[in-house]
Design goal:
Blueprint: E1 2-3, H1 7-10, H2 17-27, H3 35-48, H4 70-82, H5 85-90, E2 93-97, H6 103-116, E3 120-123, H7 128-141, E4 148-151, H8 171-174, H9 181-196, E5 201-202, H10 227-242, E6 249-253, H11 274-281, H12 283-290, E7 295-298, H13 318-328, E8 334-337, H14 343-354
Parallel strand pairs: 1-2, 2-3, 3-4, 4-5, 6-7, 7-8
Length: 358
């Protein structure tokens, strides 16, 4: 799936929404739809839709949620095969949604669901009551495949709903906890709260190793500068969520900790060699990959050691997403980009378009 910002941002990529989306898939191999990715999404929705169906089934860590029973596989294949190309493309798009905006915003989301068959939404500011109401509204419009609902709740729902929900300590504070079992309980409570408002995926934990004191964007969102502590704490947080039917998302692959630039505003460059990247930045991601984290989020970073093309964001790099994450690490779960409205992705795309490379 691709995480877009909102409907107004779509125009920035030029032209009609449908044609723009199609252009993305034609130009960036990492965005090509794959049936097993669709299968993961469907199984998550069967297991993780709290407002419509319960169930005690949990994700199989070793299989990253891939369906294993013949009936499940057959059902997924039948749905996939019945979808048009436009419907399949739409399933890869996640749009930004708010529960504190007016009816015109809600109607815009309605239109994206009905006309473009988007696969899901990420909720930002609002209230839990209104978000649950809108989730039910939007789910009713998704007649063929349920929507995947996500949120950034790294330190609790209060990250997005400050006035009406609980905020837990930031990850840097939690990194000092001696008893890692408390991180599991933290994850379990996050799952309970997210599921009550219809959320399937929490874009957490942040598994970046915070090894640059000048980092303006990761900082206290990380468990700290020790790769082993980051990996252990991230695993327990992830396990607590996924054991309680909330999908976790390890971010920001392949490691946003050693940057002094915020990828919301520009494209950071990481100039470390492969040995350093493998031993430090990649370490927590490898641990969580081996232990069944349901999804990963790709950062907007330029890392010449992995892909030496000038200003190529890692989120759009086949060498990083496919060759490194899929092939070298063997990761089979869902892959999200970070927000494509962020300058770390938008600036290189605009420059490429101006040079007629897209």
């Amino acid at each position: 799936m691709i995480k877009l910002s909102n409907t107004s941002r779509v125009k920035d990529f030029g032209g009609d929404f449908k044609e723009t989306t199609r252009a993305f898939f034609q130009n960036f191999p990492i965005l090509k739809i794959m049936k097993n990715t669709f299968a993961i999404s469907i199984l998550i929705l069967l297991t993780y839709v709290p407002l419509k169906m319960g169930g005690d089934a949990s994700m199989n860590d070793a299989e990253y949620g891939l369906p294993s029973k013949k009936g499940e596989v057959a059902w997924v294949n039948s749905i996939y095969d019945s979808m048009t190309e436009d419907e399949r493309l739409g399933q890869l798009i996640v749009v930004r949604a708010y529960s504190n905006k007016d009816e015109s915003h809600a109607r815009t989301i309605d239109n994206l669901i009905e006309k473009y068959h988007v696969g899901g939404m990420t909720f930002f500011q609002g209230t839990p009551e209104k978000q649950a109401e809108l989730t039910n509204r939007y789910q009713k419009l998704a007649t063929k495949v349920p929507l995947m609902v996500s949120i950034d709740a790294e330190w609790g729902l209060g990250m997005r709903m400050k006035e009406t929900t609980m905020s837990f300590p930031r990850q840097l504070t939690l990194g000092a906890i001696q008893d890692n079992r408390l991180l599991y309980e933290f994850g379990a409570e996050m799952a309970r709260q997210c599921r009550r408002i219809g959320v399937h995926v929490n874009f957490a934990p942040v598994v970046d190793v915070n090894n640059n004191p000048n980092n303006p964007v990761i900082n206290d969102r990380s468990f700290g500068e020790d790769r082993y502590n980051v990996a252990a704490k991230s695993y327990m947080y992830m396990k607590g969520m996924q054991d309680n039917l909330l999908m976790a998302c390890a971010k920001h692959f392949p490691g946003h900790g050693d940057t002094d630039v915020d990828s919301h505003y520009d494209l950071p460059i990481i100039n470390h060699n492969l040995a350093r990247l493998d031993s430090i930045e990649l370490y927590p991601f490898k641990v969580l990959s081996q232990h069944g984290v349901g999804s990963m989020m790709i950062a907007h970073l330029n890392i010449p050691a992995y892909d030496n093309r000038s200003k190529m964001p890692s989120s759009l790099s086949h060498k990083i997403v496919t060759d490194l994450l899929r092939d070298d690490l063997g990761y089979r779960g869902l892959i999200f980009t970070d927000g494509l409205e962020m300058a770390g992705a938008r600036k290189p795309i605009k420059e490429a378009k101006s040079k007629h490379r897209l």
